[in-house]
Task: structure prediction
Amino acid sequence: MVVIRLARSGAKKRPFFNMVVADSRNRRDGRFIERIGFYNPVASANEPGIVINSERLSYWQQNGAQLSPTAARLVKQAAATKAA
Result:
């Protein structure tokens, strides 16, 4: 199954997450198919915290990719931020 989830990167105590499309059998930070955005939980006020390519997200969802619970929460949060 194809899953849209977060892959952790960044330094110790400075997390940074890439939102990736990956096979569910691969490791969290392992091989992925495509990077469709990122989430920076420690972003300063003038940096974007969440960036998601909505066209690629909808493409993968139409082709059967499932969102992880955390990725679904971030997509919802990014949509609310974009609308406001």
The CA atoms of residues 16 and 54 lie 20 Å apart. The chain is about 30% helix and 35% strand. The first strand starts at residue 2 and ends at 11. Residues 2-83 form a domain with the S16 Ribosomal Protein; Chain: A; fold (CATH 3.30.1320.10).
